[in-house]
Amino acid sequence: MTTKLFRDARIHTPVSDGGGCVSWERGALLVRDGLIERVGREDDVVQGLDPSQIDQEIGLGGRCVVPGFVDPHTHMCFSELREKEFATRLSGVPYLEILRSGGGILSSVRSVRSACDETILGRTLKNIHISLSHGTTTVEIKSGYGLDTASEIRLLRLIERVGRQTPVTVVPTFMGAHAVPSEFTDDPEGYVDLLVKEMIPAVSAECTPPFCDVFCEESVFSVPQTRRILDTAREHGMKLKVHADEVTDTGGAALAAEMGAVSAEHLLAAREENLAKMASAGVIAVLLPATAYSLRKPYADARKMLDLGLTVALATDCNPGSSFTQSVPFVFGLAVMNMGMTVDEALYGCTLNAAKAIGVDGSCGSLERNKLADLVVLDGDTPAILAYNCGVAPVLSVYKRGECVVQRTDDRRIN
C-alpha cells in the first residue's frame, strides 16, 4: 500500500450531497492506493497521523486544487481533420447543408472506413493526451464514424484500447445513429432497420458499451426513429442519451424526458416546456459551448436551465468538424463569460455533474473520501483562474489516482 499526503493546497471541490462547493484555504488530502482517505483542513487531515505511515509528501505551494475534469461528450475517435469544411462554414454555408451534400459527419465516415486501426488509434491518442494536459482525467468517447456493423465495433474496440493505453478513464458510447450513411441516402428507414435488427445486438454482444446515443435532428433521425433505436438499445442493456435540438427544435428534449434518458446533449434550440420536462424526469443537460462558438450559433441558455432545476454538465464535444477542441478550461471560460454560469456552477458542470452524465460520479468528479485521487493543480488561487486567464490552460500539474501524469516544466512554484 502507498500513502501520500498532499498539503499546502487551496482545495475547491463540489460535494455529492448537493450542498454546493466547499473550500479549504490551507487544505490537504491523504491518499492511499489512489483513493482519497481524508480531505479537508490540513490540521484536521494530519491529526493523529504517524509520519512513518506516509510514503510521500507533496507540497502544492498554496495553489488551487480542483477535481480532475470530466469530459462527458466527445467524438474524438476519428482519422482526419476537416479544416476545409471549417473554411466552408465560415463562408456562410450552413452545417446541415454541408451534411446533406456528403460532407460533415459523412466525410469522417469515409476517412475512417478507409483508414487502418493504427491511424485512427494514433489520432485518438493524440486527442486524449492533449485533453489530459488540459486537466481531463475522465472522458466519454462516442463511436459514430463507422455507420456499419463492422466499422462501429472496430471503433468501440479502439476506444477501449485508448482506455487501456492511457491514464485517462475512458467511457465508450455507441452512436451508430450519428447520421444516415450515404449508401442509405434513399432508404433511411432501411438504416434504422439495420441498427435495430443487426447493429445494436452485435455491438451489445461484442463490446457492451454502457450508453447508446442518437442524433435526433432534422435531416438526421426523426423522433419516431430515435424512439425505436433507443427502445432497442435499452432492451440490450444500454442506458440512453440523445443529441437533442441542436439546430432545430424537433422535440428531442421531450423525448429524452419521456424515455428516461441519462442526458440530452446540445439543446441550443430546445423549448422551455421541454426543458422543464427534462428537469422533472431528472435528465441531465449536457451543454457544449465550444460547438456554439465554432458554428457561430447562440449559446444554450444555461441560466434558464439552472433556474428550471436542471442538472447542467459541460463538455468539449471534441470532434473534427463542429468543435475541434480538447480543452475543458476553454469550455469553462465560455460557460462563465457567455452562458451566465457562475464559477461554481461551471466547476460542477466540468466535474461532478459531468461525471453523473456518464455514470461515474461514484468514483470521480469531486474530492471526497473513497473517490479516486484525480486532481488538477491550477496556476491560481481559485477556480476563477480558468475563465480569468482566458485562451490558455492554467494547469500546472495533473494527478490520476494520486500519480503525477502531467507536470508543466516551465513553472517552479510547486515544491
Describe the structure.
- With 415 residues, the protein is an alpha/beta fold.
- It contains 16 helices and 16 strands.
- The protein folds into two domains: 3-67 and 367-407, Urease, subunit C, domain 1 (Roll), CATH 2.30.40; 69-357, Metal-dependent hydrolases (TIM Barrel), CATH 3.20.20.140.
- β8, α7 and β9 (211-216) form a beta-alpha-beta unit.
- The two termini are 24 Å apart.
Q: CATH topology of the largest domain, what is it called?
A: TIM Barrel
The helical percent reads 25-40%
Distance between the termini: 24 Å
Rounded mean pLDDT score:
95
Number of domains: 2
Count the E strands: 16
> Per CATH, which architecture of the largest domain?
Alpha-Beta Barrel
Please report which band the strand proportion falls in: under 5%, 5-15%, 15-25%, 25-35%, 35-45% or over 45%: 15-25%
Main pleated sheet:
8 strands, mixed
Task: Count helical runs.
Answer: 16
The first-level CATH class of the largest domain is given as: Alpha Beta
Shape: globular
Structural class comes to alpha/beta
- As a whole number of angstroms, the C-alpha radius of gyration is 21 Å
User: Which residue ranges are poorly predicted, with pLDDT under 50 across at least 5 consecutive positions?
Assistant: none
For the record, what is the CATH homologous superfamily label of the largest domain? Metal-dependent hydrolases
